Every structure is written in C-alpha cells, then in structure tokens.
Amino acid sequence: MNHTAGSPRPELSLVFPAFDEARNLDTLLDRALTIAASLTRDFEIIVVDDGSRDGSAAIVSRRARAQPAIRLLRHAENRGYGAALRAGLREAQGELVFFSDADLQFDLAELSLLLDHARDFDVVAGYRHPRRDPWPRRVLAFGWGSLVRLLFGLPVRDIDCAFKVFRRHVIEAVPLASLGAFVNTELLVRARSAGFRIHQVPVTHRRRRYGRQSGAHPRVILRALLELATLYRELRRPGEAALLREPE
C-alpha cells in the first residue's frame, strides 16, 4: 500500500526538486504513481517546490489531497537546486531513496534498471546514453567531469545525471552542504570517500519540452566552482586523500 504518515518506513522514496515546473508536474506525478506502484506496494513521492512562481505548489498540493502517497515540501523563496534536493532527501523515509528532476527528461520506468542493482551496491547512478543536451552543455559537462576526476579520482561517467538511487544508510551517513548544482558531485564524492560502492547504469535521456534550464548560468557555474574548492580543501585534510583514491 502507499505510505502515509505514522505507518512503517516505506520501501521506496521518490524525490523530485521542482522550480517553475507547472507544465510538467501532472504528467510527472501520473508517471511516478504508476511506476512506483508497479515496483512496490509501499512508497512515497516527495516534491520539493523551491519557491516556484508559476503555481507548481498548488498543483502538487491538489494532487496530494487526492493521493496520500504524494507529499509537498515548499520553500517560500528559491534557495537553489542543492537546497531543494537536500530538503527532499532529509524528508525521505524509504529504505531506498531515488531522486530525479521534475522536467521529464528521463523515463521513470527505467527506475527498475537501477533497482536491479540496489541490493548489491550502496549507490546506483544513471548516466545519460546518449545525452540529448545542446552541445554547449555537453562541453561544459565534459569539462566539469574532467575537473572532478582530476581532483577526486571519481570514476563516474555522468556526475550530474539526476537519476540515482541510494540505500538509506548512505543518505544518513553523507553530510551535504551544497546549495546549488554542485550537490550531485558532492553526493558522489562524499559517498565514495566514505567507502560506499557505486554502480553505473545507462539511462535514456530526452530534451526538456517545457520550462527552461538554469544549470549553465554563469552564477550557477561560479557557485559550483566555489563549492568544489571548499569540498576539495575539506577532503584533503590528513587521512582523506588516500581514502578518496583507493582503487575500485
């Protein structure tokens, strides 16, 4: 059955940060409900509205009244993607915690591909194959991935792919500080530095139909670089460097 407040911990949590995604949310929630119900009898769907101005929160609130498995977290003002994802992960109660974006760029049915490996690995990370973003975003992603691999030795093909599953103990053990787009990198770097096992799975990627992307905005990139430098300094304290670069 669907998870409700006061019942035992659900098997699966689905977390979706959202900012001005009103045109996507009904479709997203329809798909999430259908897919989650096909995978487990006990699940919850958490949408974190990060200060949307287009009525996104009202849509989720309406759907939540009709379907108790849906929960809305709302930020009164836009705090950033990382802040929204952190809030959703903190709130999630599932033994397995999945997150993705609300922009319909991924096929939620492929969550089953990740869950096939979730009992054997601590983190299952999707990678876009092929990636459907415009070429400037692909160039930025290549540069970012190369920088992260250079600094942290993180052997992940698509660091920022918003299609990941974590076992509950990873969410509880990994501290997060990022407020912006760096949160995906921070999650994976900290998980690996703590010794958690990461497995990668190819997933289908589609271009966004509605709304606009903000990941390539100069302000977003600058914040990510500053947060990257902060994490690098923190993890290069005595004892951390060797752990980060242990062989697979």
What would you call the shape? globular
Mean pLDDT comes to 90
Structural class: alpha/beta
What is the architecture at the second tier of CATH? Alpha-Beta Complex
Strand content: 15-25%
User: Got a strand count?
Assistant: 7
Rg, rounded, reads: 17 Å
Number of domains: 1
Q: How far is it from the N-terminal to the C-terminal residue, by CA?
A: 39 Å
Count the DSSP helices: 9
Biggest sheet strand line-up: 3-2-1-4-6-5-7
CATH class: Alpha Beta
Describe the main β-sheet briefly. Answer: 7 strands, mixed
The name of the CATH superfamily reads Spore Coat Polysaccharide Biosynthesis Protein SpsA, Chain A
Order of helical and strand elements:
EHEHEHEHEHEHHEHH
What is the share of helical residues? 40-55%
At CATH level 3, the topology is Spore Coat Polysaccharide Biosynthesis Protein SpsA, Chain A
Model regions low in confidence, pLDDT < 50 over at least 5 residues: 240-248
How would you explain this protein's 3D organization?
This protein is α/β, with parallel strands linked by helices. The chain has a single domain (12-244), classed as Spore Coat Polysaccharide Biosynthesis Protein SpsA, Chain A (Alpha-Beta Complex), CATH 3.90.550. The chain is 42% helix and 17% strand. The chain has 9 helices and 7 strands; from the N terminus they run βαβαβαβαβαβααβαα. It has helices at 22-39, 56-66, 81-91, 111-115, 135-152, 168-173, 183-193, 218-235, 240-244; strands at 12-18, 43-50, 70-75, 96-100, 123-128, 163-167, 198-203. Helix 1 (22-39) links the parallel strand 1 and strand 2 (43-50). The protein is globular.
